[in-house]
Fold this sequence. Notes:
The complex is a heterotetramer, with 2 copies of chain A and 2 copies of chain C. Chain A is α+β, with helices and mostly antiparallel strands. Chain A has helices at about 20-25, 60-75, 110-125; strands at about 5-10, 30-40, 45, 50-55, 85-90, 90-95, 95-105, 130-135, 140. In chain A, a hairpin with a 4-residue loop joins strand 8 and strand 9. In chain A, helix 2 (about 60-75) runs antiparallel to helix 3 (about 110-125). Chain A starts with 6 loop residues before the first strand and ends in a 5-residue tail after the last strand. Chain C has one domain: Beta-grasp domain (Ubiquitin-like (UB roll)). Chain C has 2 helices and 7 strands, in the order E-H-E-E-H-E-E-E-E. Chain C is globular, with a radius of gyration of 12 Å. Chain C starts with a strand and ends in a 6-residue tail after the last strand. Chains in contact: A-B, A-D, B-C. The interface of A and B includes residues 18, 30 and 108 of A. Strand 2 (about 30-40) of chain A pairs antiparallel with strand 2 of chain B. Chains C, D: Heterotetramer; composed of 2 small (MOCS2A) and 2 large (MOCS2B) subunits. Chains C, D: It is found in: Cytoplasm, Cytosol. Chains C, D: One of its GO terms (biological process) is Mo-molybdopterin cofactor biosynthetic process. Chains C, D: One of its GO terms (molecular function) is nucleotide binding.
Amino acid sequence: MSAEVRDVFKLSRDWLSVQEVVDTVSSSSCGAISVFIGTTREDQVDGRKVVGLEYEAYESMVQSELTKLCADIRTRWPSVRHVCIHHRLGWVSVGEASVIMAISSPHRHEGQQAVQYCISQLKANAPIWKKEVYDNQETSWRENSE
Amino acid sequence: MSAEVRDVFKLSRDWLSVQEVVDTVSSSSCGAISVFIGTTREDQVDGRKVVGLEYEAYESMVQSELTKLCADIRTRWPSVRHVCIHHRLGWVSVGEASVIMAISSPHRHEGQQAVQYCISQLKANAPIWKKEVYDNQETSWRENSE
Amino acid sequence: MTVTVLFFAKSAELAGLKEEELVAVPTPISSKDLWGLLLRKHPRLLVLEGQVVLAVRQQYVAICDQVLTLADGDEVAVVPPLSGG
Amino acid sequence: MTVTVLFFAKSAELAGLKEEELVAVPTPISSKDLWGLLLRKHPRLLVLEGQVVLAVRQQYVAICDQVLTLADGDEVAVVPPLSGG
């Protein structure tokens, strides 16, 4: 068993592959891979229907914030093995994934807790923004409540 | 938004596809898909190396136990949308997935809690057994500790 | 009654088979007495005592004084400690 | 000092641009005064007041009395409420 660990981030204008994210964290020293997928929900806002989201990011700072976040996760859950986070940018249609993250760990509890923490902290700290686009062409910048 | 919900179980002698499990629970009314993947860990047990696991199941009763489990999950987290569980049977090499489960929900917290509960209850109640197979051909039936 | 007994995992290895018909089973019968019948046919199952439960018509039943009413064709399974996932 | 200012999301829409050079910025300067300079150039940013923070060399800085030491070429970003994920 090697001591090598991986933190892999990707900001992508293309469709996200859950298989790719899972393969990135796969390790024969781990019995658990915990995954979270955030998808665009078909919402009604004030009678307007959401048809998709438009994402933008301060890309270089996303990299530095996620690097800090992974260091933080490894302090809290030292047994965490690999972390992979893919986030979409640009246009994301309703039903598509905007973020996929996976964490491998020897046992499941630490990985499941780490994924919950990871998505909460990403929403709180990663410089990424989305606006909802409605069926009447109007748009509205969102704000994470948490 | 329709009221239709899906509980999908599969016992499979083939490689499990995380993409297939995720696609099965995908819903435009949901913003979150929580996933757990259990993989075969490369363990050392008393100096013998685990090369894989051999699974067997009381297949018809697995179906009935998972049906009960999903009903239980829907009572605890009524907003849970779709549940999909695939479990391997037969020979599973080190590093491969033995179980993949995904749950979709409008918001992430209930789905993440439901997945944790689902894997704990599956391990406690689904009539499935595995034996470890070692590099010296010896085998040993396992017992879930939880 | 004639019931079908299913053996899984270590119990199948110990019994040397996966399935058999058990004939002339009295009913009602306690789960402890049903386990006793199985032990008489397959003494090697004794190593599982204290760890095993039964499943009768796909419902788990501890080995105890609980009384079971069996019907012809009922499925009874020997359930060693679970290890799915 | 000359710093590069980056505008994101709603701040880019309000300022009408995504990036500009800001020249003759005094240093040290409080983050509040730096925000004041940006407001003078882009008065429409005022609608973000109370919600926005800055990022200076990729570190978040609240708009307050905190004193910043700037160097030529430093990157300053206007950061409206985040909504990633």
